[in-house]
Model the fold of this input.
Amino acid sequence: MSGILASMIDGLLIGSVYGLAAMGLSLIWGVMDVINLTHGAMIALGMFGMYLLFGASAANPYLLLIPVIAAGFFLGIIVYWLSVSWVIDRPQLMSLLSTFAVNMMVIGIGTAIWSTSPYNVNFSLPGITVGAYTFTGNHIAAAVSAVVIALLLELFLYRTRAGKAIRAVADNRDAAELMGISSTRVLMVAFAIGIALAAASGALVSTLFPFTILSGAGYQLKSFVVTVLAGLGKPFGALVAGVLLGLLEGAVSPFIAVSWIPLIEFGLFVVVLILFPRGIFGRANA
Amino acid sequence: MMLRRPLFWMILVLAAVFAWLPQHGNNVALREDLILVAVAIILTSNLNLMIGYTGYVNFGHIVFYGLGGYVGLYLMTVRSWHLIPAALTAGVAVSLLALLFGLGILRLRGAYFALATIGVLEAVQAFVSNFESWGRSTGMYVSFESYAPLGGPKHALWSTYFLVIAVMALSLILSLGIRRSKFGLGLFAIREDEDAAIVLGVNATLYKAIIYSVSAFLPAVAGALMFFKNGMIDPSIAFEYMLSLEGIVMLMLGGQGTVAGSALGAGLYERLRSYLLTSPRLSAFHLVIAGALLLLVIRLAPGGLIGWLYRLAPRSREVIE
Amino acid sequence: MNDLLQVRGISKRFGGLQAVSDVSFNLGEGEILGLIGPNGAGKTTLFNLVNGVFKSDAGTIAFWGKDITGRSPDQVVHLGLARTHQIVRPLSGMSVLENVIVGACFGREKQSMREARTTALEVLERVGLADRANSSARALTLAGKKRLEVARALAARPKLLLLDEVLAGLNPTEIGQMISLILSIRDGGVSVFMIEHVMQAIMNLSDRIVVLNLGRKIAEAPPAEVVKNADVVEAYLGFPDIVDKLRGAQ
Done:
């Protein structure tokens, strides 16, 4: 197996975590046309959440995902009422600025507590070796976890009443209300799920790489790239696009210094938006 | 006709006060305090042109300041240019670069544009960190000799101070001039409803490109002046994302869209920030407080302090607008 | 009568939908040309093609002797073609007067701020909004906002005014006032091209009418003939009110 192929497979694995993160962003964006600038901070909180829980319990991190997701959900409800509930029908720029303000506050508190030093979750699963290359166990487990969560989300959105209510509100809020769906509650729940997904992706990332309170920003950028590639409101599409992004990174990283990658991603983001205002696969709120 | 606006004279008075106060008692500490306020006003009032006038949120505004610093310092240290031509050239160069970037990202509307400006900031920072001629991540520093044409470091610091005050006055006057002009009216129309503005005859593409470029000029000049004064520049201090964010807080606090608001918000916040950064307990909470302030302003008083003033005393609009 | 507007073979497709298909017609100077058709016929899309919001997939548009095919809306206004929107788009954060000043500043004459102010006050007087000049545009009633749309377009000193359902949502009194305004606009030398669903009004106002159905032109004739046109009646079948109104307008 060549080095590039191994790198790409690894990228594919990590990409599923990107996809998970993007799902959270895409869900919120698609359902309520809010660009959630707390996304990066929530990912970072997920990282620290896993760190704290693992430190306190030494339990299997993949099981600890469950409390992290739950905590993310409740955090999402708080953030919703703090900065989103009242900008729903205002110009999009308002939600941009208000979620941005919350982001500043969270990063500020996080920096005060944890400073900007790197942290680690010391947990390793045995890897799988193919020829000269070993795929880290954590990477594989993270990818599996991401896919499982994504499937659960799909099931939720398409097979449960609550999920259908969310999709109805995303499609046409007024019509949904006429059908008796409480859009306020639905929006709140959708937002909270979006945050929970962000936290989950952060928790998974914490098992892969060292992180700081500022690490969320890089994943936020990746989430934006993935979301515009996939188009809004298509969670599974976000997972696929995330994997593609991971593949791309894997293909490119043996040749380019790591610091250029965010730049390439930014360039991709701008180019895709200019050429495909509706996302490559579907609708974007242009 | 601008001479008839009270605000024009108030700006001149402000600049005069800034210029006179510290040099009166040779008060260097005060000068250092005031120069920070002046820079905040420069950044905020030019940011206002994009956010307040045109309705396009620029998260990466600080990039003009940093780039201006780099171009200026390069011209002064490597090419041995004198301060003033270097600063002016930095302004022009960065405006042209802004025009180039603008052609790409100004096609994006609203939030997408805002996100793209972050990318521009990061792209420039990454590029500069790897750029050989500009010292890569170490940056550049000003050697002693560069201060000689200005009469030595002490004199140079004073001269730079007065130049910065002049740029501050120019920024505010520029804001005022645009606000009352036909060009400004076009910008406001774009802010209200870009598509309707186009149908009404506003060449939105051109106007946005112009204002983005114009909003880069004076911050770039200020950057050249300030980094010369500070004696050094490197990618982390040139492109401090935090300063960009604070610019937005200052603008919203003072009252976006108004000239007085950008000055007021910058001045007040700058004082708050200095206090926070020097207080041992609170400095870690600097970012938290900034965020909380922004959230409060957006929720309670989206028009900022000046907007609030206009509501309390509508006649004040005639004086300070 | 000279032809002010000559539209030849314009079309527009959106994905799978052919919104406008090979439409041609003329509009003469001093004329009020009506545009009617069932919902979804492509009327607003046609307007958007004429004033440059959309680029036509084919064909040409000539206005006042110049080829305006493919020009952007802001260029078209400078040549003398202004329009109003079906769903009103006031510049909400600005006053009524400022809204109209924008129209004058960026219209055909590209007036200075001072000239624009004079023009704006004149136009507001004409449409009956002079007393609301300093109100916020947001505060107007629907009828007021519709008049503001017209005022803004008039301030651009157009030669041709495109009115998109300017009567929709108005009560009978307001409709009467708007009709008088439209007639006075034409009498002032501005030609009018108007989309309207209020049949009685458009039948009485228009010199000629273009009928669109499913993106195609199915008739172009004076109102009296259009009403008798079998294709037109068929297009509207299923809307008995409309048929009665057509009969009533003979």
Q: What stands out?
A: Residues 152-179 of chain B form the longest helix (28 residues). Residues 250 and 266 of chain B are 5 Å apart (CA to CA).
